[in-house]
């Protein structure tokens, strides 16, 4: 796959773990609950990433089903490429692949 970035910015991120309540405790994230964590990450993301920017998400994007994934993806700026993490694999069966620019186990950039 060839990537063309034009004048857009390119970002790399990983392990957002949207809707993963236990990650707050496991990783000592400074949030009271999942809603606060999700809203903070979305706000920080959109304050940094423009609509035409490119984001490579390096795995563990979100837990949950179609409702949760859709709620998050509908609110995030940028063209998102997902490199799958262990928490993302089961969600492939639920049809989220078309919500990303590209989804793969690995990418050569």
TrEMBL record:
Cross-referenced SUPFAM superfamilies: Metallo-dependent phosphatases
Pfam families from the entry?
Metallophos
Which keywords does this Swiss-Prot/TrEMBL entry list? Hydrolase
* Domain spans labelled Calcineurin-like phosphoesterase: 9-99
- Molecular function GO labels: hydrolase activity
| Name this protein carries in UniProt | Predicted phosphoesterase or phosphohydrolase
- Its source organism is Parabacteroides distasonis
Q: What is the lineage of its organism?
A: Bacteria, Pseudomonadati, Bacteroidota, Bacteroidia, Bacteroidales
